[in-house]
Amino acid sequence: MNRRDLPCSAKLVLKIIEAKGKATFKELLQESLLPERTLREAIRLLIKGGFIKRGICLNDTRTRIYECIKVEREGNIGP
């Protein structure tokens, strides 16, 4: 999946994660101002597309942390 194929909501979430490095669902919800359901779908698409990965917060194992795993350069995905 290419970044251009993503819906606007997923692109916004990806930009926020790229800028912050890592972000929790709550942080993404506050910064993106997206509805919860839209944010969950955007995260699902980004994980499925291989743009981000989900990790566990060591301070609170109920909290998930999202971070980028791919960088797009000159229209191509990957290094």
From TrEMBL:
Stored InterPro entries: WH_DNA-bd_sf
Domain of life of the organism encoding this protein: Archaea
Protein name: ArsR family transcriptional regulator
